[in-house]
Amino acid sequence: MEELNESNEGQLMAKRPKFLLVISILSFVNIGVTILTTIFGMISGKPNADELEAAKLQFASSQDQLATLAQSEKVDMSYWSDILTKLEIMTNNMYANFIAYNALILLVSIFALTAVYLMFTGRKIGFHLYIAYCFLYVMQSYFFTAPNDVPTFVIILNILYGGLWVFLYSRSLKWMK
Question: Of 49, 133, 153, 163, which residue is most buried, by most CB within 10 angstroms?
């Protein structure tokens, strides 16, 4: 009787859900691009003074455009101005901690890759690790920036994005052991 159960489990494991295959491939591509981008960014090094100045000028230009829009449309744009200011602070902190920031992204991405691989191979522990990855994905904004300098919408978008993927992977939990 146990042999019959083992052979049925073997057949069950052999039939990976197509939906899991699709979302795993999408995750592998996304995480792979993130890893490659991070590695190439680390190899190319920290932006030079001219690039940092260009980023500051871009933020200043965006603030000016918001102020012009607020005056012409007689609309309060202080919320969006505050968000731009916070994004500039986050960007400056990222540049100030360039290697550590990219190393953190690389480690979190490798963690995610491991979690997706485990789910792809039918291990339920991968799903739990993926939930932990989604938590780390949200929290990595706070590693180099004070909580009051992180825009709320960034955190909300990260939570929604991670929650969507957790929901999608949860559809295949019955297949995983």
Answer: 133
In a domain, 119, yes or no: yes
Q: How far apart are CA 75 and CA 61, in angstroms?
A: 18
The neighbour count for residue 153, using CB atoms within 10 Å, is 11
| Residue 4 resides in a domain | no
Give dist(CA 169, CA 167) in Å, integer: 5
> What tens digit of pLDDT does each residue of 47-65 get?
888 988 998 899 889 888 8
Query: Which parts of the chain register pLDDT below 70?
Result: 1-14
Instruction: Give kind and range of the element (H or E) at residue 76.
Output: none
In a domain, 9, yes or no: no
Q: 82-116 burial by CB neighbour count: b if 16+ within 10 A, else e?
A: ebbebbbbbbbbbeebbeebbebbbebbebbbebb
